[in-house]
Automatic annotation (TrEMBL):
It comes from the Bacteria. Keywords: Oxidoreductase, Redox-active center. InterPro entries: AhpC/TSA, Thioredoxin-like_sf, Thioredoxin_CS, Thioredoxin_domain, Thioredoxin_ResA/DsbE_sf. It comes from Acidobacterium capsulatum (strain ATCC 51196 / DSM 11244 / BCRC 80197 / JCM 7670 / NBRC 15755 / NCIMB 13165 / 161). This is Thiol-disulfide oxidoreductase.
Length: 211
């Protein structure tokens, strides 16, 4: 039942966000639904919305080394995953049109500030240009979005090959939690509760959970 409630909230958020130009009007809807999610998340710690090493042994990346990649950031820099070895890393596949992604991004911003001193890094991998043949336009949309909500971590533009390396990314957001040794210790698909994400961060940092 709890899983159905959380899934239903995610679908409502998704439906509530129609397009980029209507984003500010949708903010009220997203914030309201986010509040509802917070009310039930204390009951959701045992009902992971997504996957982890215990609940989804058929997920090939869990327990394995995260595939390395080098992607271009919004400011034109080449950023590789291996350069973050020694840190715990969140790799979040998202898109500007994804309502659940818009709920999670402020959480990631806060988590980066809170756990950054302990060694947490966040990489947002935008899939927008994979949905639009005009890559320059997609890049501008993502850049404008990132500035609007003050994303405080690197935003990279996805490629088909990286998507395939990470299992094909059949739903957004899809998020991987990688420990200091480069191993995937947890993953979520769809809108995961705030408390679940924090538990997975602690697992990646080696400060809690089943690291």
């Amino acid at each position: 039942m709890l899983l159905m409630m959380v899934t239903g909230l995610g679908l409502m958020i998704w439906a509530g966000v129609e397009n980029y130009s209507a984003r500010q009007q949708d903010d009220v809807k997203v914030q309201s639904l986010e509040a509802e999610l917070h009310q039930i998340e204390t009951q959701a710690d045992s009902a992971h919305v997504g996957t982890d090493a215990t609940q989804a042994p058929d997920t090939p990346l869990l327990g394995e080394q995260a595939p390395d990649f080098t992607l271009t950031s919004l400011d034109g820099k080449k950023i590789s995953l291996k350069s973050y070895r020694g840190k715990a890393v969140i790799v979040d596949f998202w898109a500007t049109w994804c309502g659940p992604c818009r709920v999670e991004i402020p959480w990631f911003e806060d988590f980066r500030q809170q756990y950054g001193p302990q060694g947490l890094a966040v990489l947002g991998v935008s899939t927008d240009q994979l949905d639009d043949s005009d890559t320059a336009k997609a890049h501008q949309v993502v850049t404008d979005f990132a500035k609007q909500i003050h994303m405080n971590y690197p935003v990279l533009m996805a490629t088909d090959s990286v998507e395939q390396q990470y299992g094909g990314i059949s739903a957004l957001p899809t998020t991987f939690f990688i420990n200091r040794s480069g191993q995937v210790v947890a993953s979520t698909i769809g809108l995961a509760p705030h408390s679940v994400i924090e538990a997975d961060i602690k697992k990646a940092l080696g400060t809690g959970g089943n690291a």
